[in-house]
Amino acid sequence: MSTPKPSTFPRNTWYVAAKAAEVQDQPLGRQICGERMVFYRAQEGRIAAVEDFCPHRGAPLSLGRVCEGKLVCGYHGLEMGCDGKTIAMPGQRVRGFPAIKSYAVEERYGFVWVWPGDREQADAALIPQLQWHDNPEWAYDGGLFHIKADYRLMIDNLMDLTHETYVHATSIGQAEIDETPCKTEVHGEAEVVTSRFMQDIPAPPFWQMALRSNGLADDVNVDRWQICRFTPPSHVMIEVGVAHAGQGGYEAADAHKVYSVVVDFITPETDGSMWYFWGMARKFNPGDAAVTEQIRAGQHKIFSEDLEMLELQQRNLADYPERQLLKLNIDAGGVQSRKIIERLIADEQAMPVLQAAVA
Amino acid sequence: MSTPKPSTFPRNTWYVAAKAAEVQDQPLGRQICGERMVFYRAQEGRIAAVEDFCPHRGAPLSLGRVCEGKLVCGYHGLEMGCDGKTIAMPGQRVRGFPAIKSYAVEERYGFVWVWPGDREQADAALIPQLQWHDNPEWAYDGGLFHIKADYRLMIDNLMDLTHETYVHATSIGQAEIDETPCKTEVHGEAEVVTSRFMQDIPAPPFWQMALRSNGLADDVNVDRWQICRFTPPSHVMIEVGVAHAGQGGYEAADAHKVYSVVVDFITPETDGSMWYFWGMARKFNPGDAAVTEQIRAGQHKIFSEDLEMLELQQRNLADYPERQLLKLNIDAGGVQSRKIIERLIADEQAMPVLQAAVA
Amino acid sequence: MSTPKPSTFPRNTWYVAAKAAEVQDQPLGRQICGERMVFYRAQEGRIAAVEDFCPHRGAPLSLGRVCEGKLVCGYHGLEMGCDGKTIAMPGQRVRGFPAIKSYAVEERYGFVWVWPGDREQADAALIPQLQWHDNPEWAYDGGLFHIKADYRLMIDNLMDLTHETYVHATSIGQAEIDETPCKTEVHGEAEVVTSRFMQDIPAPPFWQMALRSNGLADDVNVDRWQICRFTPPSHVMIEVGVAHAGQGGYEAADAHKVYSVVVDFITPETDGSMWYFWGMARKFNPGDAAVTEQIRAGQHKIFSEDLEMLELQQRNLADYPERQLLKLNIDAGGVQSRKIIERLIADEQAMPVLQAAVA
């Protein structure tokens, strides 16, 4: 009958915790949803995660090492199992040692996914499908930022691309974005889609480059689209592209268009900070590593421009918690996404028995 | 009927917020009296200041830009007017947008002055007169420090120049300062004056330089004076100078003396930090840019020596809030200045209706 | 009859505050047991310590200077005596000035020792005896770390050398440490001794070097010992050494063994941070400065490996204050040492009259 602290994020859901390449021979300590976790590779390289807290004396297990698939504490050699139970410790009987929390964790699409809540409820089938992974027609690259802001500010940011005009004026921004209204649709608790279609406009610098790299003329007008898809808890996939004007736009044949997906996984670290996994999967010229690198570097620069804005926005909102923000049509994508998040949190909080089992 | 938090600074008064040169094409974000403000140049270069908080989603307006005299939010292009009312926003009707606070602000004497309180009460005639500005007989230069200490500690510091002997021993300090008593006069709520007159003493290195640069002998004894004038809320002007001994001292003819005014504007950032605008206006050799630079560099060094002292004094006082400090005769200038500040604050707090209007 | 805040450290006891060489011409400001102190050399170079708080305006006395054995405040020249009473101040009568706290302080064995509590109870005879100081048969060197962790975590660390196997695997760790049980004895409130004796084992790299530097074979098996002696409040001396196997081990004649004392003085700065004075006194090859330096550099590296572990352990324990840690046989040294510390604190808290006198 305890009153759980109101949370800003659901827990019984999959978050991206790391790029798979971040967890190799050494354990990786990372705070996710307020919990300090350690990720490592157990037997046969299978990913595992437990609390970053040795049950012996509270040392961080992430400073230890992995020996034959067991996580060994770097302080006194306690061997931890991936179920949170101590396997062994030099000179000790460990049967009575208290277990630490272990987490449901999956490696998929080059990422490590973690379910911070009740591991009994974790279902790997709920991890979103990423069609572009391991598909030779697509190329992908991306990066990771740590941002001192509520993760929902990034959802707001991504579900409204109007800001491109101002924050990213020299790369992907253009006045036509502001001038074209966007439309937001909500599909139950499964998805929020905000889309904008611009007809017969000049291509901004990024898309000129993309057209050229695909052997298409870059000096003719295009139809441009932005389709932002939020799926809970905090994934945003943005379909973006241009087609030579008059060829059908989003529906045009591949010979007339270039397109890609901006891939955003946003993971709360604490109530006021996040891990932001960003990247781009593209379906044009996938074998050209130079284009891949050029896009990655460009995205790095573009998303860096958002960092300061979000961190200072967070400071402003923390300073004035009582102020009501405006909810305009351009904000509908973020507003609707937050409503789904709030319902998920409310559902979790309504299950006190399960909550207690998790705690 | 709410109880306003007790303040350490009056609000219905003019503070120096910036050097005019700090506000050019880009907006300047700066916290003054606990409020985050953004300063920018509106129509015809007129200075303007509003809250650094976009009414749309709380983004900092200081990360935006100025277009044709309008402050444009860097996130979604909202155009803010200098009265705190939204002018326009792409694709939106803005009539119902809540206003943000705007501030009375004036550009004068190369500084930006702000009135953080009720802008209806702001009267530009209350800005102090600075005779040396735009006067070819005078030269001025100065700088700005951010200091993590209560702004009143700097008033204490400046209203008692005894500390020169110890903190600034190699430049302007000399034993005779300690040996000569000072006198403090209070002129109602308008001014506190602490003065010290030293007769027939050797000139310290700084004043030897000043005498030489004015073509006067630097190896004879001088009469020296220090007249510290505090005016509320936190301005301290210090008349300092030396005359060849026996020529009338402070009253001597210009042919026998060199003098200047140490100009100090001290602006609270928060209860425990300040912006310190320091400088010197001198009436000798005003056209010599090398002397100007030499003095500026010397002041920079001298005032830097005070920084660490004040920040650690602040830490000590915060650690021991219950300790009573001594109030000696040398402290009278600071003590009397603080009394005026306290009365101004009490007067403001006694006006709950106006306070409410400001909030 | 006030309720003193529960403390994590006893106050009426000697702590190492500084290396003697740290206090030369300039005063040294350092926080010990939560109190800001300034250490300086008074008349004839005698060490003295008072609060780092000028009774005039709260300036830190550690920014001042020492003139003829008097501590002179760097702000207004107040002269402080080593009894906490103001001696003089330019132009002032100081008889009514409030005294600040002064501390019993002793210089011994190259360290400055301070008694943070009631100076009337301070007895220099209670400072531990260090046989190796100023003894040509011994060499000593060491260093100082600032660590953001409860000082008792370092006592735990040092009273259980099992962790050498894991944290210091390449220098002094070896599997035999884990395999050999240790024994802990408590001698009233005077001492806790945890010892481990290993028979007929290979020497780890550090001890091979020590054997060589003493002209002994380094490729034969040895008997090895570790005898950790805790004495309150927080000193840990560790006798360590190896003898050629079968020569009597710890009791072997000097011709067959090499040994030294790891010297650890652990001083609380605050409840969550410490000053850690580490070093080694050795009885082999004492005249060889290169060996001294090699050992000091090696210890620096070894103890650095403990820093991150302890600081993250501290963070974990602060995050989960309610979790019970395990108390295994290997932890007995730390557990018993903490019990002595708790009794000392309880004894102090049971003396409210004296406490009041100290405050």
From TrEMBL, chains A, B, C:
Keyword Transcription regulation: no
Keywords: 2Fe-2S, Iron, Iron-sulfur, Metal-binding, Oxidoreductase
Top-rank taxon, per record: Bacteria
Domain Rieske as annotated: residue spans: 14-114
InterPro entries reported for this sequence: Cholesterol_7-desaturase, Rieske_2Fe-2S, Rieske_2Fe-2S_sf, VanA_C_cat
PANTHER family from the UniProt entry: 3-KETOSTEROID-9-ALPHA-MONOOXYGENASE, OXYGENASE COMPONENT, IRON-SULFUR DOMAIN CONTAINING PROTEIN
Protein name listed in UniProt: Rieske 2Fe-2S domain-containing protein
Lineage of the organism: Bacteria, Pseudomonadati, Pseudomonadota, Betaproteobacteria, Burkholderiales
